[in-house]
Structures are given as C-alpha cells and as structure tokens.
Specification:
heterotrimer; A mainly alpha (665); B alpha+beta (376); C alpha+beta (417); B: 376 residues; 4-stranded antiparallel sheet; 8 strands; C: 417 residues; alpha+beta; 5-stranded mixed sheet; 3-stranded mixed sheet; 14% strand; elongated
C-alpha cells in the first residue's frame, strides 16, 4: 500500500484543510452489478444466495458419491470401486453432505431469511458474514482437492482413532479432512456468532422473542448449538492433526492412550451436530404449514420451547453413539434413558404440526407437499431412532444398515425435504419468480418414491445382518430366497437412481423457471411473516420503513382484520401486500445507512487454505499464509464500515457511461 | 529531468549490470553472476518505477506547490522512536559480543523503532492539521501497536507472576501468597467499587504501583531461581537406567506414575507385602488365569497394599538381533510406590510364553512375590 | 394472464399423496418378517443373550409401528378432510393445552416403561458372575484370533482335556459348547474392531488397550455367522468370523483333538515337502505348535518382526475349521459346505468334526490366496510402501510361491487336523 498524498491536479492552494482522500491503493469496490458485486458483497441476501448455490453444488457432488456407492453395492462382490476408493467414497459422501451441503444450506437460508423476518436491514457483522461464506467455499474446495492429491480421507466420517493415525491411514487424505473441517468450522462459528447477535440485537421495534417467527427461533437455537459444539470438534481435530503431523501420542495406545477419547470428543460434537442439521428444517416446516393451512402454528410456545429443549437435552445423549464401545452398564443405562427423553420434545413438534393442519384449509403447493413429506418421513426415522434408544437392541442395530436407514430418513426425509420446502416457499421472494408447480410435483414425488425405495429396504438388510461400510456384500451372508439381502440392495440401488432423477427434476425446474421469466406476485402464498412484506426480490435495504411489530405473524395481521366479537373470530382481508408495500415506500425512512462492500473478507478467507496446504506439504507456506491473513485482518480493521463519499465517485469506465454503484448513505 | 533518487537507482542498476558482466567473464561459477544480474534487473525495475513517479518528489513536479504543501512544513514532535532505535542498535552491538538473546532483542527493537519512526515522520507531513495527522497515524498504526503493546505488557505481567509462583518454596507459601494477593485485590476493588468518583490519578497510581510491585517481585523471584520441581519419569526411563530393583533410585524420586483409575484395563495386580494377586476388572466370576494375548497393548494397574515401598517388574525377554542387542526393553517396571499407592504400566508381549525360557512373570523385587502370566 | 398458482389442475389425487410412504413402510413391515434364513439375522435368536434382546425389542418395534401408523393416519385424514374446497378462513386456533399435554404424557409414560425394561436388559447382558467358559478374543486387521486359557485346575473352557493342557490358539471360527455361558475377554492389536455374531448376541467393540467382556450362549449345535462391525480399514468387509457350538461330547472331542501332539507327514510324500516349504516360507509368521526343524529345534514364529500388529493366524489345526483368511473364504467346496452349514442340530457335531477332507477342500480359493494374497484380499502388503509402519506388513504379503510350492503347502496343510 503506497500511503502517499495524492498529488493534486486542481489549482494549488495551501493545504490547510483536512483532506478527505482514502488511503488505500485499491479503490473500495462499490459496484452493484457484475461479478465484483458478488465477490465483494456484504449484503446478506447475496451471501445467502451464494451459500445456497454452493451448497446445492456440493449436494450434487455428495449425491454423485452416493450413486457410486450404490452402484458398487447393487450386486454381490461388486467391482465398480476398489476397496480403497469405496472407503474414500463413503467418508467423503458423509462429510460432503453434512459439512458442505446441509450446514451451509441452512446457514444460507437463515442468512437470507432471518434479517427479513425480524425486520432488520442486514446482519450485525456484514463483512464477517462474507468472510463466513468465502471461508466455507475455501474449505470445501480444499477438502475436495484431496481427490486429486493422493486420495481423499478414508476413515469414515467419524474418523475413529487409532484407524485415523498415520500407520493405518498413510495417505494425506485424512490431513485434508482434518484441515478442511477446521476451515469450515471457522466459517460456521463466525456465522453463528453473527446470527446470534443479529437475532438478539436487531429485531424490529415491538418484536419480542415470543413474537419471532419459528424459523428464526430454530435458527437461534441452531447457532447456539454451533457455538458450543464446533469448539469441541476443533479440539478433537487439533489433537488428531498434532498426532498425524507432529508425532503426538494422543491416540497412541502403546503410549497409554485410550482410543475412546476421540469417540467421546467427536460425539459430544456429533450429537448436537445432528440437531444443528435438523432444527432449521423444523423451523422451515413450522413456517410453511401454517401458511398453507391458513391457520397459525398450533402451540407456538411449545414448539419454541421444545426446540430449545432439544437443543439443551441434545448435549446429554452423545454416548448413545457408543453403546457398543464398552462403556459399562451404568453409563449405557443413563444415556439410554436420556435418549428416550429427547424423543418427547421431538414428538411434541410432530403433534403440533399435525394439529396445525387439522381443521385448516389445506393448499397443496409443492412447498406444502415437501413439508408434509417431512412429517411422515421424519416420523419413520424418529421411530427407528427410538428403537435404537433401547441399548441392548442397539447393540444389534448399530453399525448396520438399520442405522444407515434411520439417519437417512431423518436427514433426507427430514432435513433435505425441509430444505426443499424452504426453497420452493421462498423462491418467489428471492428471485421474483415462482418455481413451476408441475416440475415441482414431479420433483417431490420422484424424490419421495426414490427416498423410500432407497432407504426403506435398508431397515430390512440391517436387521438381517448387513453391517455398514462394507465395500462388498457376499452371497454367503445374503441369505436364501428371492427376497434376500442382495435383492434389497439392488432395490436400494435402483431407488437411488430414482432419487437422482428427482433431484434432476429440481435442477430442471430451476432452469425452466429462469428461462420463462414470468414475474411472481409479491405475496403469492398469502403468507404470514414479515419477509413477505418486501419487494420480490427485496430492495438492498430490505424495508423502506422498518415496521413496528405488534403481533406474532405480523404480516398476516396487517392484511387481515378480526371482525368477530368476543370468542368468535372472523377474519376479513383489509390490505394486500402490494398496498402495504406502497404504504412503506410512501413513508420511507429518511436516512438508510447500509454497509459497503469490501475485499478484505475474501483475502483473509483464502489465506486459510494456503496455511493448510503448508501444514501438509511445505511448512514455509504457513508463515506466508499467516502473513496474508494478518495483512487482511489489518486492512479489514482499518477499513471503516461504510466507504467514504470519494469511493462512490469512481472514474468512469473505459467504455464510457456511468458505473452503477451500491446504495450508500 | 531526473531527480536525485532516480539518478541513484539508475546508476546502481547500470553499475550492477557492469559488475555482472565483469564477474561473469572473469570468475568461475554462475551463482555470483546470477546474483548480480538479479540485482541489476531489480534495480532497473525500481529505477523505472522511480522515474515514472518522479521519485514521489513534489518539488520535482511542482516547485511552488512544494513550498506551500504541508509536507514541506516540518512539525516534528517529541517521539520515542529514535530512542528505541538507538537502544536497539546498541543492544545489537552488545549482543554480537555477549548473548544471542540481546542480539535478537536489539534487532526487534530496531525494526519496531524504525517502523514507528517511519510512520510518525510520514504522518507529520501528511497535512498541516495536527489533529488530523494524529488521527491518520493512529488509524494506520493502532491495529499493530495496540495488540503488540498489549501483548508485551501482558507478557511481562504474566511472566513476573509466573516467576513469583515458581519461586515460592512450598505449598503453604503458595497458599499464603495467593491468599494475600487475592485479599489485596479484593480490598482495593471493594474500595474502588464502593467509593464514587475515584480520582483518575489515584487509580492510575494504584495500578501503577501494583504493576511495579508485580514486576519487581517477578524480577527478584526470577533471579532467585525456581524451587525444585520433579520431572516425571516413565517406566521406559526407569528401565533404561536399569533401576528396576527394590531400592529407591533417583529415577523413582522424579517419577510419578500414580494413576487413580483407568477404564477397562487388562488386570489389576495387588501386592500385600508378600504375594501378588490379580483381579480382572469388570469380571465378577472365577477367572481362568492371567492370560494376555500376544502383541496386544496391555494396561496393568499395580496396587501396593504392603507396608513398604514396592514396585512391579516384569522381565520381557526381548529378541536379540544379529549384533546381540536386544530389540526391546529387557525389564519393564513401575516406579517405586509408597504403601497404598497405585501405579500404571503399559506393555506388549512380542513373543509367546513358549518362546521364552521360564515364561513371563510379574515380580516385586526384594520379595518372593511372583505372578506368572501366560502369553499363548 | 393466467396465474399458475390458481390452476385447478392441482388436483393431486389425495391418496397418491401417501402411496409411496405407505407402500414403502407396508412392504417393509410385510417382507421383513418374510425371513429368508439370513445367517446374521438379528431377529432369529439362537442363544439366550440374543433371545433377551429379541424379547425386549419386538414389542418396542410394535409400539413404534403403531405410533407410526397413527401419525400417517392423522396426516392422511387431514389431507382428505381439510383440503381447500373454498371454505372460509378457518378458526385461527393457537393451541390447546389439553391436547398438547396429553400427547406429551402418553409418550413419556410409554418411554418410562420401555426405559425400565431397557435398564434391566442392559445389566442382565453385562453379567459376568455366572461364567462357565472363558475365551480371549483378539481382533487384528483383518482376522480374529481366539485363545482358550488354561485355568488353575487344568481345565479349558470348563472341560478337562485328556492330554496335558496348554492354551489353544485358533482363528476364524470360535468353538464353544452349547448351553454354556461363555464370556469372551476381547481386545485388539491395532485399530478398533467389533465382534458381532447376531444370532447369539449384539456387538461389542474390541478396542486396543482395553479389555471388554461380552457373553455368548447357544441353545443348539450349529454354525453362527458373524462379521466385524466397526470400520477397521481396507478389508473391513472381509473380516468375518463364525461361532461353532458343539454339544458337550463333541466339544470334548474337539478339545482333545486341538491338544493332540503334532504329527509330521510321512517321509517322501508331497506333504513332507510341504513341511519344508512351510518352515522356509510361512513359519516366519504362522505358528504350528509342535513343528520342529529337521534338526529337532522347535519352530517359533516371529510375526512381531514382520507384521505391524505383531501376530498372524495360528495354523496348527487349520483343517479342523472350515474357513480361512479371516473367515473370508471357505475351505470347503460348495457341496461339502452345505453339508455342514445346513446340517440339522443332531447331525451338526459329526459333520463339523469331520473337518476338511481332501475331497472337500476348496482348492480354488486356497490356491488363489497362496498365489497372491493381496490380490485376493485388499491389504497393505506392498513391500515398497511400508514407510509408515516401520517396514512391517499389515496383512499377508505376496511370497512369490511357485505352483509346486503351493501344491506342497496345500498337501501339508491338509494334514493339519
């Protein structure tokens, strides 16, 4: 940075006044169109879209890995993947789906929707938000670069020690896994802090915590879980990294270590992690069902409290992943009981969702279908979970395909169906266009059929003795008869293809909708919460006038007035969304201050993989990466949140004409 | 028109090029030539840039503006950076003669002083407005200065505190010291908290006094030296020094393998003064005998329930390689444990009992206690 | 402009809404009880421990199934009854405390009952005080070793051998007496494995540095299949085992046979050449008890020098068991295998004790294995890639045996009964 006084081109006057030029060499990016407006944005909406798009890309990557796994297991003694490649494939499939798809996808949706739902203009720390996205991208790319650099991690996604140490996994794959997860962990942690502060501090006037939409509540609980769970996995990953890179002996049994240390650390993270994965989808469903049932959510306080209870109790059940690990009967008994206890708040939600629909006026759009699908599919997964809570039974079920069936039902049938419900629901708001209902139905049905066909038979094969993580099945253990284990594996593999087609229908839907270009109305679903009281897509500053909130489902109450007397309620529509927004525009706030874009977050983000590559390959790269990070943080700290006026008068582009600049204030 | 700086750089680049040619022609080896050519290229690059920006020399481009501009008006203020740089230079010289640490500290001081001096000099010429200059300087250097100053300050305080703690001779002294310090902090804090509008100088004075006391105490304790601490020796160390006998040795004095409990170990051995018995934790029935599978990492706990100090020893009968050197430890033992203590051992039997003369047995040296262990 | 969302073509047939999940679940429930004699079926207990688990779990599954059906029914009802048919905006009910608390109380009560029985089951399965037979189990990449320790009174597994007692070391198939409470004390030499024979009990992890106890009990003679159930690396899929239960007289016969002294092959036979080939190539790692060199020195194997985890399967009485290489392949041809595996409980003992006869030997798999073990079973046995394991193998390397050597070795091994 050349910090020189710019030579003045104007008439020379003694420079007694305070100059106002900026100090940096590079002009602060202020464009609002073009690639720069995406690369340097701090707008939560753009960041949310980037998170979601990247997560969907990784969904396809993880899905492809799953298809390869199913192809290998379609027949006995398959030869499509070698044992080594298969081990990498299932490890990376799980890692990609959990850390690079579901977590960033829910973060992306939360990033987009939560500020709108609480009536804020952006999140509390916009540049940190951007940093979170670019760090996630850097981590995801870094992790997947292992495929090209000697093989990916091959120890299973929970990477039990001592199999994860160097003599048993000599390739660099696990090093990439460890460092990649550290990087994405940093991203998750910064997003979590950001969203917590936003939700607690930046709600619209009048919006008390118990008037917040349920999705925001679930997002809040999820972020708290992240804040406490990510440090635990960070510790575990540091121990493993030091073991692998610097010959530490944390998990070296000959030095007196106990391999169960890793298991405990991992699962203290791992169990809250699964609640991190599912709670946002619970929140989405709690938004979608009331809108399409034309009734408020049944038992809002209990849904909120049960979400918080799940978050809290979720810390006390981790050892149910370790029932067969030799913990001793007392520990096992305690965790069996606590696991059964946590089924209760989850059951509460199912009851409340069903009762929301009960007596309603149900409108079966694709979003509603996905939400109802979640209720049904998640119930199946949850009930198989209850059978695991019976610890002696779990010693038969754990590490078999029965468990694989359980978690795929709760994750695919739960988290993913919820995510798709959210996508279909909020698409018109985000992009101004509604996804095609025809393709949407095709998407939904194919996915549901595919999902049940893939994971349903796994219950059977698991109970009949097929363990998980086996690169091949054999005729000897498959049993006799037509409907033996091999048959069900074949059905599951065919089901996976159907599932893939279902996902393909979604991609087609997106493309077809984008091509058609039909504009959607502002409030296509006659929704209930504040994010719908904006343009489609919302203006950069979200709300022209920050609304004052008087009710839960504020937007609904602004559109509908209760004209009944006493106990009897009758709602009449008194305003449409268009009228409400026109009213907002007329009373727009005078001074709207928005944060300006910045290039520092992306610089700091990409220094992280530099350090990570250095740890694996050449230690010299570590100080270089660190220097870049420090340089970036320094520049970030020096930069004011809003660019100065001068930055907003960039020189005209070489082709002439005006450059569109972002809002500044 | 070339400025002074440009002339210097152009000349240097030219000179480097000439030297490169001369050296390359006359000398053997390419390293020097490459170096000189690189220097020439680098200097040429710098010269080019310099010429293009006219050496950033306002007077070169605009003599009148030069007179009027703020940069020409020197409003130098008091500054500690020259002092720090000078100190650094002195320490560097000192360090060359005495200690490497001084050299490094001196270099750090020169770097810090140089940077600080540079930034301050620049900020004083940035404009004619002192307050603006100060703000500019702070914006620029605070993100570096404050964390470093904070870290150094905190480091000194923490280091002093640690020297004090390490210097305290006994447990009682430590309790007293902590208690006294804690009481003082509580007392002063209570006064500050309860009294309204404590004067700033009083506060600064109190904290300054506390810091000075801490640093002084730390310096004294540091110079006095640490108290005796006991490095922990492991079974490997003890066995290597072949000290697995019944007497206490220095290794035992420094060892600590006391472990209160450990999960799912292979066996718990108890010595009652004359014999060794074993117990298999987690197994309530009659055991078939102490059997340990070959080559499995095995954890053993040893309870000394006798009246004297005792240790557990096992002879490992390691393989002998071609030069006659054992490929593994010959003896593995715990530290000498007091009566009532529990010691912990990790071992691995590379060879079965049938390959070893007399089989394996745990013994307590100095007694006849012996517990055979079968390795199938 | 036609607003797509108001298309009445959204007439999705109501029942189709649930075709998939209902069909899926229904098929699952129906066909899962359509058992096809899967050898590792967890719902076909053959011993008291698995029976305890089954007694506990079947009604939990039943309750879960009923709850599931009730939820589907409720959702289905909503779909049919409350579909938008133009009715006015419904009652904006915010909740009903009675319904909520009822639906909290009922599952809580159910779970409390289930919990009570669960705790009882957990402690019952962890009992060790009624053990009648003790066997040490050690997992290693990628095979299982069993050793039968000798008790103070000279008995093994509660039986007095007719010859001098010594610990028996076998691998792959663990032989136990029927109706006996067997306790295994299990550990591992390298990574975490898991010992799982579903028809006899759930699984228990075998963790290096720790010793875990687990119970086995078989009602009837038979062969019970199992598999390692904790991911342990490259050939985790190929790490299998069986538990063989024999009636007391048959077990006594087996025991005595295991302790029978070593008999050298007749001079001049192929097997005798095989003995030499074995000493030269295999005895580095594999132990055969009683084997001596021509000079008379006992041959003690040294797998701790060659294998990272320090052990290799003991082949003393290889042909008394009928699987090899971590129970990955059968030693018996298909027909002979059927005769043993499908034998009725009364005939099983005799069929098993016959062992592997030359006519019944599965030459193909055994020879392929001897020719190139890493080619047949993925292992880390490439001598050029052993830097991280101090130059030691994980698994059996390719010894470069010639066909003649293989013939000799097979002949020799056939006599190991």
């Amino acid at each position: 940075m050349a910090l020189i006084e710019r030579p003045t081109q104007r008439a020379l006057v003694p420079a007694v006044a305070t100059p106002s030029t900026t100090y940096g060499v590079f002009r602060r990016p202020v464009e609002s169109t073009g690639w720069k407006s995406w690369a340097f944005t701090v707008d939560h909406k753009k960041i949310g879209i980037m998170y979601s798009a990247t997560a969907l890309f990784f969904f396809l990557v993880g899905g492809f890995e799953a298809l390869l796994i199913r192809a290998q297991l379609a027949g006995e003694e398959g030869t499509i993947l070698s044992a080594d490649t298969y081990n990498q494939m299932f490890t990376m499939h799980a890692t990609t789906m959990i850390f690079l798809f579901v977590m960033p996808m829910t973060t992306g949706i939360a990033n987009y929707v939560v500020p709108l739902q609480i009536g804020a203009r952006d999140v509390a720390f916009p540049r940190l938000n951007a940093f979170g996205y670019w760090t996630f991208l850097a981590g995801g790319l870094f992790l997947n670069s292992s495929w090209l650099l000697g093989g990916a991690a091959d120890g299973g996604w929970f990477m039990y020690a001592p199999n994860s140490s160097v003599p048993f996994s000599p390739s660099h794959g696990i090093d990439f896994w460890v460092l990649g997860l550290q990087i994405t962990g940093i991203a998750s942690l910064t997003s979590a802090i950001n969203l917590i502060v936003t939700i607690i501090n930046m709600r619209a006037p009048g919006m008390s915590l118990m008037k917040m939409p349920v999705f925001t509540w679930m997002a809040l609980v999820t972020q708290f879980l992240l804040v406490f769970a990510i440090p635990v996995i960070t510790v575990a990953l540091f121990l493993l990294m030091f073991q692998r890179e610097f010959d530490a002996t944390f998990f070296d049994v000959n030095a007196g270590a106990d391999p169960l240390l890793w298991q405990h650390l991992f699962w203290i993270f791992g169990h809250p992690e699964v609640y991190i994965l599912i709670l946002p989808s619970f929140g989405i469903v709690s938004e979608v069902l009331p809108v399409f049932s034309r009734k408020p959510l049944f038992g809002y306080p209990l849904v909120v409290f049960s979400g918080a209870a799940i978050g809290f109790l979720g810390w006390g059940v981790w050892a149910h992943h370790m029932f067969a690990s030799g913990l001793g009967p007392v520990s096992v008994a305690v965790f069996a009981v606590s696991t059964m206890a946590i089924a209760i708040p989850t059951g509460v939600k199912i009851v409340n969702w069903t009762m929301t629909m009960w007596g309603g006026k149900l409108w079966f759009t694709t979003a509603m279908l996905f939400a109802m699908g979640l209720i049904v599919q998640f119930t199946i997964g949850g009930l198989s979970g209850v059978t695991h809570a019976v610890a002696p039974s779990d010693t038969q079920q754990t590490d078999t395909y029965y468990i694989v069936a359980h978690f795929h039902y709760v994750l695919f049938g739960g988290a993913v169906l919820g995510i798709f419900a959210g996508l279909y629901y909020w698409w018109p708001k985000v992009f101004g266009q509604q996804l095609s209902e025809k393709w949407g139905k095709a998407n939904f049905w194919t996915m549901v059929i595919g999902l049940n066909m893939t994971f349903g038979p796994m219950h059977v094969t698991g109970l009949q003795g097929q363990p998980r993580r086996m690169y091949q099945t054999t005729a000897e253990r498959a049993g006799e008869g037509f409907f033996n284990i091999s048959f069900w594996n074949l059905i599951a593999s065919i089901g996976s293809l159907i599932l893939a087609i279902g996902v393909l229908f979604f991609v087609i839907n997106v493309i077809v909708t984008a091509r058609k270009g039909e504009k959607a109305p502002l409030d296509p679903w006659d929704a209930r919460s504040l994010e719908w009281m904006t343009n489609s897509p919302p203006k950069e500053h979200n709300f022209d006038a920050i609304p004052t909130v008087h009710h839960l489902d504020e937007f609904f109450h602004r559109k509908y007035e209760d004209v009944g007397e006493g106990e009897h309620h009758e709602f009449h529509k008194i305003a449409t969304a268009e009228e409400l927004i026109a009213e907002q525009e007329a009373n727009a706030d005078a001074h709207i201050h928005m944060p300006s874009p910045s290039y520092w977050p992306i610089i700091v983000s990409f220094s992280l993989p530099v350090m990570a590559y250095g740890i694996i390959y050449s230690r010299w790269m570590i100080p270089i990466g660190f220097a870049i990070a420090m340089f970036g943080i320094y520049g970030w700290a020096m930069e004011p949140p809003t660019a100065t006026a001068d930055d907003y008068e960039p020189p005209p582009p070489p082709s002439g004409g005006e450059l569109e600049v972002a809002t500044h204030g | 028109m070339f400025t002074t700086g440009s002339k210097l750089l152009i000349g240097s680049a030219f000179a480097a090029a000439v030297f490169a040619v001369v050296y390359g022609v006359t000398q053997e080896g390419s390293l020097g030539t490459i170096g000189l050519i690189s220097a020439a290229v680098g200097l040429a690059l710098l010269a080019t840039i310099n010429v293009l920006v006219r050496d950033s020399n306002v007077s070169a481009m605009d003599p009148e503006g030069f007179e009027a501009s703020a940069a020409a008006r020197n409003s130098a203020r008091a500054s500690l950076w020259p002092l720090l740089t000078a100190l650094g230079a002195t320490t560097v010289t000192l360090g060359l003669i005495t200690n490497r640490t001084f050299f490094i500290l001196g270099m750090a001081a020169i770097t810090a002083g140089g940077l600080g001096w540079l930034v301050q000099a620049w900020s004083e010429r940035a404009s004619a407005d002192r307050r603006f200059n100060q703000r500019a300087r702070n914006t620029l250097i605070d993100p570096i200065e404050l964390p470093i100053a904070g870290a150094i300050g905190a480091g000194i305080l923490i280091y002093s505190f640690s020297r004090i703690m390490l210097g305290l001779p006994s447990k009682t002294a430590t309790i007293v010291a902590f208690g006294v310090m804690g009481a003082i902090v509580l007392f002063v804090g209570a006064i500050v908290g309860l009294k309204r509008g404590a004067s700033r100088t009083a506060m600064t004075g109190t904290y300054g006094l506390a810091a000075v006391a801490l640093i002084a105490g730390g310096a004294y304790a540091g110079l006095n030296g640490e108290r005796e601490t006991h490095p922990h020796h492991t079974p490997g160390d003890i066995a290597e020094e072949n000290e697995c006998g019944p007497e206490e040795t220095e290794a035992d004095d420094l060892a600590s393998q006391s472990v209160a409990s450990k999960a799912n170990i292979a066996a718990e051995l108890t010595f009652d003064g004359s014999s060794l018995t074993y117990d298999l934790p987690g197994y309530d029935g009659q055991s078939a005998g102490l059997t340990v599978p070959r080559s499995t990492p095995t954890n053993i706990m040893f309870h000394n329930d006798g009246d004297d100090d005792a240790r557990l020893v096992i002879e490992m009968h390691p393989r002998v390689d071609d030069d006659g050197n054992p490929t593994g430890p010959e003896l593995i033992c715990t530290a000498l444990g007091e009566p009532g203590s529990t010691q912990f051992l990790t071992l691995l039997f590379a060879m079965p009992s049938s390959a070893v003369e007399g089989g394996y047995a745990f013994t307590v040296p100095g007694t006849d206690a012996s517990l055979p262990v079968v390795v199938p | 402009m036609k607003d797509p969302m108001f298309e009445r073509s959204l007439r999705v047939p109501k029942l189709r809404r649930f075709a998939a999940p209902v069909a899926g679940v229904g098929a699952m429930l129906a066909l899962s009880s359509c058992a096809e004699d899967a050898p590792q079926d967890t719902w076909q207990p053959a011993g008291e421990n698995a029976q305890l688990i089954q007694d506990l779990q079947w009604w939990v599954f039943l309750i879960a199934g009923i709850v599931g059906v009730l939820v589907f029914a409720a959702v289905l009802y909503c779909v049919i009854r409350f579909k938008d048919r133009g009715q006015p905006i419904p009652e904006q009910s915010h909740g009903n405390a009675l319904i909520e608390y009822t639906f909290i109380a009922i599952p809580a009560a159910l779970l409390a009952v289930i919990g009570g029985f669960t705790i009882n089951g957990i402690f019952e399965l962890n009992r060790t005080d009624d053990t009648q037979c003790e066997i040490n189990v050690t997992g290693q990449q990628w095979w299982w070793e069993y050793d039968y320790p000798v008790a103070a009174d000279g008995s093994i597994c509660g039986y007095m051998p007719s010859a001098a007692a010594a610990p028996i070391v076998t691998s792959g198939q663990m032989v136990i007496p029927t109706n006996t409470r067997v306790l295994i004390r299990g550990t591992s030499r390298d990574v975490i494995h898991s010992f799982w024979v579903p028809r006899l009990n759930g699984k228990r992890d075998m963790v290096p540095g720790r010793v875990h106890t687990w119970r086995f009990h078989a009602f009837e003679p038979g062969i019970y299949a199992g598999q390692c159930a904790e991911f342990c690396g490259l050939s985790h899929a190929n790490m299998r085992m069986e538990i063989v239960a024999l009636d007391p007289p048959d077990f006594q016969t087996w025991l005595d046979n295991q302790l029978a002294p070593y008999t050298s092959p007749e001079e001049g036979t192929l097997a005798a050449a095989g003995e030499e080939a074995f000493i030269a190539n295999c005895s580095r790692c594999h132990q055969i008890d009683g084997l001596t060199t021509p000079e008379g020195d006992p041959v003690i194997s040294a797998p701790d020098q060659w294998v990272y985890a320090g052990a290799a399967p003991n082949l003393t009485n290889l042909m008394t068991r009928n699987t090899f290489a971590g129970a990955s392949w059968d030693l018996l041809t298909e027909d002979c295998r059927e005769a043993v595996w499908e034998a009725s409980p009364e005939d099983f003992g005799a069929a098993y004790l016959k062992g592997v006869t030359p006519e019944c030997l599965n030459q193909i798999d055994l020879r392929e294995w001897l020719r190139d073990p890493p080619g047949k079973k993925p292992m880390y046995a490439d001598p050029d890639k052993l830097e991280e394991t101090e130059g030691k193998f994980r698994g059996m390397p390719d010894l470069g045996l010639s066909e003649d050597q293989i013939d000799q070795l097979v002949a020799y091994l056939l006599e190991r009964k």
